[in-house]
Amino acid sequence: MPTLSASHTLAAVHTFELSDAARAAGCLSASVAGYAAAFSGMRLRKSKALQMSNWEAVELSVPQQQYAATDAWVCRLAFEQLATAEGRRACRAARPALFYSPTPPPA
């Protein structure tokens, strides 16, 4: 955020660390593709060439723009599921293999 706000007139009012919230909800993944699977059941196909392309270019290519928009959309979707206990429970119930198992009580 500091670099972005230095080059643009922006002021962050609220921030949300998605990876911390996903980890706290028991999500096993720490990637956008993993969040897509855990919180929506979708599988993202991500090109390694596109991931490694020049993201510092003055103008992004159309595929780069689509890639960035998809990532933003998935993060928004994950945020919406993480925002409520009901959303977190529903994701865990629908896709339990993508979440940590609850720790059993001591014997």
Output the helix-strand order.
HHHHHH
- Beta content comes to under 5%
Helical stretch tally: 6
Secondary structure class reads: mainly alpha
Approximate shape: globular
Q: Residue share in helices?
A: 40-55%
Number of strands: 0
Q: How many angstroms separate the termini? A: 47 Å
Mean pLDDT across the residues is 89
Largest sheet descriptor = none
Radius of gyration: 17 Å
Low-confidence stretches: none
Explain what this protein looks like in three dimensions:
The protein has 107 residues and is an all-alpha fold. It has one domain. 53% of the residues lie in helices and 0% in strands. The protein contains 6 helices and no strands. Helix 3 crosses helix 5. The longest helix is centred in the last third of the chain and has 21 residues. It is globular, with a radius of gyration of 17 Å. The model has no long low-confidence stretch (mean pLDDT 89).
How would you sum up this structure in a few lines?
The chain is built from six helices and no strands. The protein has 107 residues and is an all-alpha fold.
Fold topology:
Layout: H1 2-7, H2 18-24, H3 32-40, H4 48-51, H5 62-82, H6 85-94
Helix pairs in contact: 3-5
Can you tag this structure with a few keywords?
107 residues; 53% helix; globular; mainly alpha
